[in-house]
Design a protein that fits this description.
8 helices, globular
């Protein structure tokens, strides 16, 4: 049996291109694509993290359309992906929710496109997922996770390397790549 796997997409606190702490707006595409990738790879839940009331309202409106509205009726596959989305105010709330649900501490794994820190290899983390501890893979919007979020994590996952020096994937692309590497080796 593999451990429960969760995803968290942080909208605050993240950094902007100047390295300043900021918040970012959620996007419809991130909700759709990460939820679908998560459903494909057996993720237990996908957390959208924002303290902003207007952003939470938007997330709930989109989710409602795909779970209880016309969208869910005409596209049951999308409905099953959207049913795994949860909205939280903070990363701490995400961790508390997972720990309450699982009855044990969650292993927190940050992602970053340009880390200089020691990193966890995808293959090694994929092997650890075969244990029983719940894990949450943490993604940042804007220009990445704020240091305060990274510092709360137990590990930082190795960056995804492309063919050249350009390295600025959309978060939904990165989530799909990481999930494939973790689940399929």
């Amino acid at each position: 049996m593999s451990s429960p796997l969760y995803l968290a997409l942080i909208h605050y606190p993240v950094v902007n291109k100047n390295g300043q702490i900021t918040g970012s707006a959620l996007t419809n595409m991130d909700l759709h694509d990460i939820a679908r990738a998560g459903r494909t790879f057996g993720v237990k839940a996908y957390y959208v993290v924002t303290p902003y009331k207007d952003q939470k309202t938007l997330a709930f409106q989109i989710m409602d359309h795909w779970t209880h509205g016309h969208g869910g009726t005409v596209n049951p596959a999308r409905k099953s992906a959207f049913e795994r989305i949860r909205v939280a105010d903070t990363f701490e709330a995400v961790c508390n929710d997972i720990e309450n649900e699982q009855g044990q501490a969650v292993v927190k794994v940050a992602t970053s496109a340009n880390t200089q820190e020691p990193t966890r290899n995808c293959r090694r983390l994929g092997q650890e997922l075969k244990g029983n501890a719940p894990h949450v893979i943490v993604f940042g919007t804007a220009w990445g996770l704020a240091p305060e979020v990274i510092n709360q994590c137990d590990h930082i996952l190795e960056p995804i390397q492309g063919a050249g020096s350009y390295n600025h994937l959309s978060v939904r692309s990165a989530a799909s790549i990481y999930l494939d590497r973790l689940i399929n080796g």
